[in-house]
Amino acid sequence: METFKTLIVILLSSVLVNNYVLSRFLGICPFLGVSKKLDQAVGMGISVTAVMLLATAVTWPIQYLVLEPMNLGYMQTIVFILVIAALVQMLEIILKKFSPALHKGLGVYLPLITTNCAVLGVAINNITDGYNFLESMVSSLGCGLGFLFAMFLFSGLRSRIDETGIPKCFRGVASTLIAASFISLAFMGLAGIVDKIFA
Predict the structure, then answer these.
(1) pTM here?
(2) pLDDT above 90 as % of the chain
(3) Comparing C-alpha atoms, which of 116, 117, 123 is closest to residue 140?
């Protein structure tokens, strides 16, 4: 029961409190670049979630079965980046084969998942936080769902912004960044809520 409670806390914390985009400010490039259209935003969120889960499933064993036993911990970042790059290439091939519309819609942003610091951040933070394999997978799922949730919310907000008659000086990047900051502030207000629920 205690293990289940821990996993729920990790999951909810990753989605709401420690949201990688809105609280830790990782993965901002796709967040701002692919959030104009809802279908592309959701597609990017699902793709990033899949890569986060796959990256954790591969990097956690590499860390504890290869790098640490061989005293190669200093190679962690390089090895993790190579693993993530390979996984993104596999995902791109799969999307191109089974969902050409989504592949075309994501365009240049799909290869950018390779350099998405949120994916690398999740893989490294799971190790630094001392999570076991199951906790790491739950954390990655929560971070991916948090990324998807942020993309979904921001896409809806951006579509509303485009429909309103805002002053010319605030159109474009300015209104986008202001809206992102308001969503970020709202998520920061959730700090501590998960611990109080399960205290």
Answers:
(1) 0.86
(2) 29
(3) 123
